[in-house]
Design goal:
The complex is a heterodimer of chains A (217) and B (165).
Chain A: H1 2-26, E1 45-46, E2 51-53, E3 58-59, E4 69-74, H2 80-97, E5 103-107, H3 119-129, E6 135-137, H4 143-147, E7 151-152, E8 154-161, E9 164-171, H5 187-196, E10 210-212
Chain B: H1 2-14, E1 30-31, H2 33-42, E2 47-53, H3 58-74, E3 80-86, H4 93-102, E4 108-112, H5 118-125, E5 132-133, E6 135-140, E7 143-149, H6 154-164
The chains are: A alpha+beta (217), B alpha/beta (165).
């Protein structure tokens, strides 16, 4: 019986490997347009912005004179995936702010489409959770398309090179939104460890399921 | 040896048998990515509409009634099949079952139980997919013919179907 089980498992693995190859062959598609139309790619220079923080003050990347870079997180109040990461975003800020990479959270959603993501609600949530980082409103929804954020949460790690902020990582925080105790790939922490030791980021782009950005209608 | 192999192949293929008319739902099968991919490969002779959704995703829930209208229109066509891939957590399976009943979902639903490997399977479905949902992918004879990033209207869905069916 045990042998059969092993064989069945082997057959499943074998067949799935075959189908991987098959699907990859079928997926040849014409090349995408220039990256500029779809936001940033790793290596691009990220533009600065001036967005309203939950305390009413305007925040720009250039305000952080001593920063070596930034962990920019497009996130929001309502999204179940984003909610699951709130504590982990706070932990990232605690861990990397002193190393020169503060978290900058930006809510890209239109509050008329998603009332839970309104300014007042953002203030309330930040207070409840004790956010230690700016939580900015993308008023007019100009910044998220420039970066190429498509969902919440969506992370862009930037590193300062002279006056420029270079995109070093785009993607997810880790590989388990649901259970922080069962994470096997710490994408952002691995990228930060590489940046802090002057090494290239091995896994510079990742994807995970998230909530669509709610665009003004 | 040969017998054991064919026996395991039989068990393997049996696990992919589904009734075409899944109306009474008491359970939702949970698939790993490879199993879902194999299922797509096995739908060789149909136009397969694959919709990624979750009960917690408002735009997904919003477009489902339109998808059901389209499914009800085409579901008797043996060349057509709609498969709703729930990305709800395995522990929320009962919620998915209840949702299917409440919303009278007539298309087959499976739960993709593969949270930790999103970075593997999302790009395998579509390299331009960032992970936002809903997403709809249409396969004709197991080959991808359409990738819809985001919500899809009834007209858009029907246009893709009539063009490829």
């Amino acid at each position: 019986m045990k042998n059969i089980k092993t064989l069945v498992a082997a057959a499943i693995i074998g067949l799935s490997l075959l189908s991987f190859t098959a699907i990859n062959k079928n997926n040849e598609e014409p090349k995408q347009k220039a990256s500029s139309s779809k936001g940033y790619e790793v290596g691009d220079t990220a533009a600065d912005f001036k967005l309203k923080n939950i305390d009413g003050k305007m925040v720009s990347l250039s305000d952080f004179k001593k920063a070596k870079g930034f962990i920019v997180v497009f996130t929001c109040n309502h999204c179940p995936y984003a909610k699951k990461y709130e504590d982990r975003i706070i932990a990232l800020d605690k861990k990397y702010k002193n190393a020169g990479y503060p978290v900058i959270a930006i809510n890209p959603n239109d509050p008329n489409v998603q009332p839970e993501d309104g300014f007042q609600q953002m203030t309330t949530r930040a207070k409840e959770k004790g956010f230690t980082f700016p939580y900015l409103v993308d008023e007019g929804q100009k910044v998220y398309p420039q970066y190429g954020a498509t969902k919440t949460p969506h992370v862009f790690i930037l590193q300062k090179e002279g006056a420029k902020n270079i995109v070093k990582y785009i993607g997810a925080i880790d590989n388990n939104y649901d259970d922080p105790n069962d994470v096997s790939e710490h994408y952002v922490q691995d990228a930060m460890a590489a940046l802090l030791s002057g090494k290239p980021v091995a896994n510079a782009k990742t994807v995970a399921i998230g909530c669509t950005i709610k665009v003004k209608k | 040896m040969k017998k054991i192999l064919s026996f395991s192949a039989l068990i393997f293929s049996m696990s992919f048998c589904f009734s075409q008319e899944q109306i009474v739902v008491n359970d939702v099968p949970m698939f790993k990515y490879e199993v879902l991919e194999k299922k797509i490969q096995e739908e060789k002779d149909v136009l397969l509409v694959l919709n990624f959704w979750s009960t917690t995703c408002a735009p997904c829930v919003k477009e489902l009634p339109d998808f059901m209208e389209v499914n009800n229109k085409y579901k008797d066509n043996p060349k057509f099949k709609m498969l709703l891939v729930s990305l709800d957590r395995p522990k929320d399976k009962d919620r998915v079952v209840q949702f299917i009943k409440n919303k009278k979902l007539t298309a087959e639903v499976i739960l993709l139980d593969d949270i930790k490997r999103m970075n593997t399977w999302i790009p395998r479905f579509e390299k331009n997919w960032d992970g936002n949902i809903p997403v709809t992918i249409v396969y004709k004879n197991s080959e991808k013919v359409h990738f819809n990033d985001g919500e899809m209207t009834k007209t858009e869905l029907e246009n893709v179907i009539t063009k490829n069916l």
